[in-house]
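TL;DR need structure tokens for one chain.
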Amino acid sequence: MTIDMFKRFLMFVLLCVVQVLVLNQISLFGYATPLLYVYMITTFPCTYPKWGVLLWAFALGFCIDLFSNTPGVAAASLTAVAAVQPYFLRLFVSNEMMDDVKPTLHDMGPLKYSFYIVIMAMLYCFLFFLFESFRLFDVMDLIYNVLGSTILTVLLILAIENMQQKR
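>> reply
TL;DR here they are.
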């Protein structure tokens, strides 16, 4: 197993444990729950094989679903986000730097990275809560859930990236 695979596996396990044991217990105002595990999908570079990203996303979503009592919701949402992740990353990275850049705060810069994370987290939260409710009758609840969870998720991801940058 390569070092990259080992690091990704550790991140996989750590994000699963933190999400299931800690973050799922947080519900600010009954709407905002941080969904930090989407962070793993945002860390894949454009050069990573698409089938690999999809496989990691489905496995992570499946594990979250298994321990969070959300049958198929996280797996479907995370796999959908993983399918479009390289295309959104290309919006923020120039073609010349496509092979060298990793989606980090340091490599992309604070503004581009923040926009990238906000888009990815918002897309994931929208799909997650849409699939969870499976209806559009409570549009305001959907909007509150998506916005609140996106804000918490983005703040946690930016805090983690900022700590990694200081190392």
